[in-house]
Structures are given as structure tokens and as C-alpha cells.
Amino acid sequence: xxxxxxxxxxxxxxxxxxxxxxxxxxxxxxxxxxxxxxxxxxxxxxxxxxxxxxxxxxxxxxxxxxxxxxxxxxxxxxxxxxxxxxxxxxxxxxxxxxxxxxxxxxxxxxxxxxxxxxxxxxxxxxxxxxxxxxxxxxxxxxxxxxxxxxxxxxxxxxxxxxxxxxxxxxxxxxxxxxxxxxxxxxxxxxxxxxxxxxxxxxxxxxxxxxxxxxxxxxxxxxxxxxxxxxxxxxxxxxxxxxxxxxxxxx
Length: 250
What we know:
Blueprint (H helix, E strand, L loop, with lengths): L10 H8 L3 H4 L13 E4 L5 H10 L4 E5 L2 H14 L4 E5 L12 E7 L8 H11 E20 L3 H16 L10 H8 L2 E11 L4 H13 L3 H12 L4 E12 L3
Helix pairs in contact: 1-8, 5-7, 6-9, 8-9
């Protein structure tokens, strides 16, 4: 499969990811977390959400997996620095989870499914490692529902360039609205979707990481459009996030 992490691992991207917390980006899943549970976080990145899960389920363990070794190393470092003893991290693929059947009470995934080609296959693997009755929560942005304002042709073209690249990398920028269908096809019972908008404040949280990517990819006109947006006193970027929760039958 031709899959790549479109956001990349620049310093700007890391600052962007580390802003994410369970309370802000995984709030939809908090009602499903209880002390003593065993939880898996797929696509954990630097572990900022994973550590929030650890706090909610302690003394139960949470394990985070990510395909990138640098993200695992960063997550492990952050867990050590925070003194969190019930979080572990390992490099692994969501398509081949290194766990036995029916191992977890809950599985969580944030901002991963938009980057992968076989979303149903990934969801089925999450189903496999869940105990009967276990819950799966997934959240992803939907790039068909965002607001960049004031809108200009240059800004629209810059956003579209990212969407096109993510598609070329094997992802689906519009997967958000398909999550319930994906989970149902994978075998989950009663998948339910919800949506929210995240308004990036400060706007540089998103424009900086996008501009850095465009500089890296030789698209200076798109990088300039992002920097113009962040200097616009009326500038706004709002991103739609779709979440979906389903249960393993049994």
C-alpha cells in the first residue's frame, strides 16, 4: 500500500500534535473510560492523548502504537518525564496489531484513519483485539467540511494542495463522514457518529505547520498563502472533526 503520513514530523508538526489532549480531542471517548480498563491507542503519535487516557483508567494500562519509531521514542520520554507508569508504547502497524484476540476493553484512534488506505481492514483488526462488548472510538478530520476565512483563491488552492497530497499518499480526506459505514462493515454493532468544529487559536497552530510542509515540498506560493492568512486580522481556520463509537458484539 502507498501510505505516508502527510502531516510529516517537522518541529512545527510536533508542536501541532502536542496541543492535542484527551479533554479537547478525545472528549467523545471519556464516557467510555473507567478505572482498571485495558486500552489501546492506535496512531498515538507523541502520546499526548494517550497519557490522558492513562490518567482516566489508572491503575489499568494503556498501550500506544505508532508506525514511526521517533514518535514512540518521544511518547516514552514524555511518559517518563510525567511519571506515568501505566502507559507503554511500541512501534506497530494498525493492520497487524501485536496483541492476542480479545485483549483490550477499549480501543481508541485519533487522526489516523484519514491517512490509511484500508480503513475497514484496520477497523477489523481493532475488532479482533477487543473483548466481546468492548468499545472502539475513532475520530478524524473531514477535509470536505472546513472553513478558511477570509476565503481567497490562493488560500483555497493551498488547502486543496494538502487534500490532493493526502489522497496521493493513500489517505481519504473525506473519511470522517464514512466512519459509521466503515465500522459497520468491519463488524461493529450500532456505530454512532458525532461532529464538532475546532477553531485554531492561535491560527498559527495550523498555518505554521502547513507553511512548513509547503516549503519542504517546493510549493512557495502555498506557503505564502498560509503566512498571509496568519497575518490577516480577520483570519480564521475551523476544521470539522467526526467521531464514531461502536461496540464488539457479544
